[in-house]
Amino acid sequence: MVKWCSGSFAALLALLLAACAPEATDEATAPAAAVPAAESLVSGERLLAEPPADWVQSFRTDAADIRMVEYVPGDTSDAAGWVDKVSFESFATQPLPNPDEFVASIAAEQRKVCGKLADHETFSGIENGYPTAVRLLVCYSNPLTKKGQLTLLKAIRGDDNFYVITRSHRVPPIQSDGDLPMPPELMAEWSMYLRAISVCNDDAPGHPCITPAAPAAEGTTSE
Length: 223
Hints:
Elements: H1 9-14, E1 46-48, E2 55-62, E3 66-73, E4 84-91, H2 99-114, E5 117-127, E6 130-142, E7 147-157, E8 162-171, H3 184-196, E9 198-200
Antiparallel strand pairs: 1-9, 2-3, 3-4, 4-8, 5-6, 6-7, 7-8
């Protein structure tokens, strides 16, 4: 069974890192909680995901083999100056990448920009029958934005599409490894949110579209 964890900078990382990380499994498993299904990205295969409540669309692109949509909180006055953002991306260009290699490549690109980057693999395994990887990236100071940034990535390789879910939070530049760049309860909410997102296909064995369960209260976890 896949197990996720949520719970000071070191404490923040411990929320999602090795001590709490799930063990890889070959079993087809579904999230403990799920959000309602968004618009199907491809017939049969679906990404079960929605933006957080009261967030609004700030960007969207649709092309033959790639789709991307971004959301920011509804009270964001300048989309370019966002503090919090979530994005959903799918692409069908074959061959679809390996999720672990894909998130590692994102980390490598961020390291070029940030200089100092904390890069933590938080999950690698199978969810609902699909290869999945989750990675936490902490950029201490981005010279372009003059801010630090936390990014939690989830990559899922479906049968027809590759899906990337990114949740990001900008903070003042992080001065030391002991800094707490965001409240533990917010990271717990992130963990629960990403855990609830999955890919399913009722037409394919091993990838059931489970009826969504009610999400746990903010700041809590469910097994």
